[in-house]
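We emphasize that the prediction below concerns an isolated chain of 190 residues; any contacts that depend on oligomerization or on bound cofactors are therefore not represented. The input was used exactly as deposited, without trimming of termini.
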Amino acid sequence: VLVRLPVAAGAGRIAAIVILAVAAGGLIRLAIRQAWRELPVTLALASAALVLAAQLGLLTGARPSAVEEMATLVELHRTGGEAVGQYQVFVRNLVFYTERRHEDLFDEQRAIDFVRRPERVLLVVRARDRAALERASGVPLHPLASVGYFNRAALRVGAILQPDLSRDVETVLLVTNAPAGSAPERSFPD
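Result of the prediction step, given as a token string:
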């Protein structure tokens, strides 16, 4: 599984470090001078600096993002006109990056009906949901590719204070309902 942590590169990271250093310097200066009357204002400014540094250094993320990587993988594994569905992951963004229509399988029954189709389909699904879909549909879902996904929209303070890759990074799979070798032959124009 390819895991891309959401840490900015280059200027974003340097700006975040500088902002944090200035905020820390202000707090150290306050402590050395014992200017406790300035504490509320200094803490407010340091907190604002922390939020700005988090935005610049953490939340902007590295490129390509997980959804961009998955879009590339979908196109790579698409051998013809297969339907592509997404089950409760990359709901708004995958269609943007692949520039193709997808079926948004927003509930389990739609996902079950989708994978039970007689023709080959591609499904983007979280690894934790794959087994439940296989059990409910009776269809084995064969993995084609995977990416690690850090969902910044669901960011919790604990993920910043005590990062844990096994908890904070989800594995998102590209699966198919057809076993390997059963995909239609890809033809290229002469």
